[in-house]
Design goal:
By secondary structure, this protein is an alpha/beta fold. 25% of the residues lie in helices and 23% in strands. The chain has one domain (3-259): 4-Layer Sandwich (Metallo-beta-lactamase, Chain A).
Amino acid sequence: MPDVQHFYHAGSGTLSYVLSDPSTSSAAIIDPVLEFSVVSGRTDMSSSQALIDFVKQKSLSVEWILETHAHADHLSSAQLLKSALGGKVAIGRGITRVQETFGEIFNLKPPFVADGRQFDHLFDDGEAFNIGDLECRVMATPGHTNDSVTYIVDDAAFIGDTLFNTDAGSARCDFPGGDAGLLYDSIQKLLGLPPHTTLYLCHDYPPESRDVAVGVTVAEQSAKNIHVGKGATREAYVEMRESRDATLPLPRLIIPSVQVNIRAGALPDAEDNDVSYLKIPLNRL
C-alpha cells in the first residue's frame, strides 16, 4: 500500500501530494504549486520548499513528477522540483491538443512546439508504470481539459479536477477544448472503480462549516455528489454543467498558468536582457 501525504495551497485551493512506496522509499510528486503574484510578476518557492523538505526528511527518492492536467488556476513548480530532487515530469498525451489550442491563442512561436517534448514522458490511456514496487495505471479522464488523466495506485486514485468534494460537484468544462459530455463519461469511469477506492482531490474550496477535504471514496461520490450522485443522467448533467459554466468568471491566474504549464512548468525563454516575459492576449479569452 502506498503512503500518501497531502499539501494544501490555500491561495488556489490546490492539493498536491507526495505518493511513496514504503518498501523502496521511491516517490512521486503530484500537482505541485509555484507561488505567483499577478501584481508583481514574482514567483515564490515556498509551497515547493515544503515538498522538498518533506522528501528530504523522509529520505525519499523522487522518480516521477506527475501532472493530472495543465492547470489553469496555478503555476506548476515541476521544473524547480526536478532540479532539486530529480524525477521525470509527465502528463497525459492529450497535452499536445492543449498546446495546439493555447499555442494559437498566445501566438507561441518556435522554439515552442506543440508536440509534448517539454515533458519527459506522455502517458497513454491505460499505460502502466511503477513507483518503486508500486504498480500504477493511467486512466484518461478528459472533459475538463483534453489532457486530464487519473493516476491509480492500489485503492488510491489521483483524479485532478474531474470531481470535487461531494458538496462542490465537478469541474467546469468551458475552457478551450472542454466538453461536458466527455466529463460525464470520465466521471462514470471513476465511479466504476471499486467502491472503497479513495479519489484524491486536486482542489477543495471548503466553506467555514468544514475542513479541507482530501480524499472521498467512490461510494461516497456515487451517493452524495451534488452533480453526479444518485444516478444523474448524461443529458441532465450536460445541461446543468453548461448552464453553470456560463456564469463562472475565468480563473484569476489562467493567463500566466497556462503559458507555464503547457511548458511542463518551465518559464518562457529569457529574452536578451535575461528576463522572461508572459503574454496577455487581448480580447481572446
